[in-house]
Amino acid sequence: DIQMTQSPSSLSASVGDRVTITCRASQDINNHLNWYQQKPGRAPKLLIYDAFSLQTGVPSRFSGGKSGTDFTFTISSLKPEDVATYYCQQYDDLLVFTFGPGTTVDIK
Amino acid sequence: EVQLVQSGAEVKKPGESLKISCQGSGYTFATYWVGWVRQMPGKGLEWMGIIYPGGSDTRYSPSFQGQVTISADRSINTAYVQWSRLKASDSAIYYCVRDGGSGAFDFWGQGTKVTVSS
User: Fold this and answer.
1) Chain centre distance of CA A21
2) Rg (CA), chain B
3) How far apart are CA A29 and CA A33, in angstroms?
4) 10 Å Cβ neighbour count for A8?
C-alpha cells in the first residue's frame, strides 16, 4: 500500500504569511495528488487536483506544486478564513485512495 | 447543482446492523464513482471504498475489506454503506464523496454521524 506523510503536522502563522505544506508518497504516484481543506465541523473541500490544478471557484492564493518527489501546497498570503486542517490524498490506477494525516493551520 | 445528501445521524448498540445512504442529484449518478470516507472523532480522513453505480464495480481499502459492504441503486441515485455487526470503534462521521474523474473527490455529502454505544 502507498503511504502518505505530511509535514508539518501543525503550524501557526501570521495573517499575510506564505504557508507551505509538504506531502510525500512512499512510491511514485504520477502526480495523482489532491489537496483538501476541512474547517471545524464541516465536510472537506477539494482545493487542488492532479497536483497543480486549482478547483473551480477556489481562490488563487492556494496553489499546488512539486519539488523532487515531494508535493507542496502553498497559501501565498494567509487569511483568517484559511484556519483549517489540510489533507493531501493520492490515488492509484487500481482506484485505491490514501489520505495524508493532515496539517492543522492556525493564526499566530 | 450537484448535491450528495446523506441519511441522518444514527445511534446503535454494539452487534446491531446499520445501512446509511447517500443520494446524488444534479448529475448523471450512474457515470461517476461514489466513495465513502470515515472520520473518527478528532482524527483524520480514511478512505473506505468506492463503487461505480453504473456497473456496481466496487473497490475497498484493505483496512475496510470485509468490515463493510458498499452498494448502490442507480434507479434511485443512491449509494450505501452497511455494517452487519457494529462495534464501538465504528463510531465516526461517514462522508460520501463523488470522484470527479481525476481521482479527486469534488463533491462531499454533509456527513452521517454514527454512534455505537451500549
Assistant:
1) 7
2) 13
3) 7
4) 12
B28/B100 Cα distance (integer angstroms): 12
Chain centroid to Cα B66, Å, comes to: 15
CA distance A68 to A65: 10
Alpha-carbon B44 to chain mean position:
16
Torsion sign, CA atoms A31, B50, B111, B117? negative
AA identity, residue A90: Q
The answer to whether residue A104 neighbours chain B at the CB level (below 8 Å) is no
Beta bridge partners, A70, equal: A24, A67
Q: How far apart are CA A39 and CA A81, in angstroms?
A: 9
pLDDT tens, residue by residue, A26-82: 988 889 999 999 999 999 999 999 999 999 999 999 999 998 889 999 999 999 999
Q: What is the pLDDT of residues B69-107, one digit of tens each?
A: 999 999 999 999 999 999 999 999 999 999 998 899 999
Residue B104's SS3 state is: coil
Q: Which of B5, B105, B106, B113 to mutate against chain A (most A CBs within 10 Å)? A: B105
Query: Within A1-108, where are the H helices?
Result: none
Question: Is A87 an 8 Å CB contact of chain B?
Answer: yes
Check residue A95 and give its pLDDT. Answer: 85
Q: Residue holding cell 449518478?
A: B29
- Grid cell 470516507 — which residue? B37
A–B: how many Cβ contacts below 8 A? 68
Is the backbone peptide bond immediately before A44 cis, with ω within 30 degrees of 0?
Answer: no
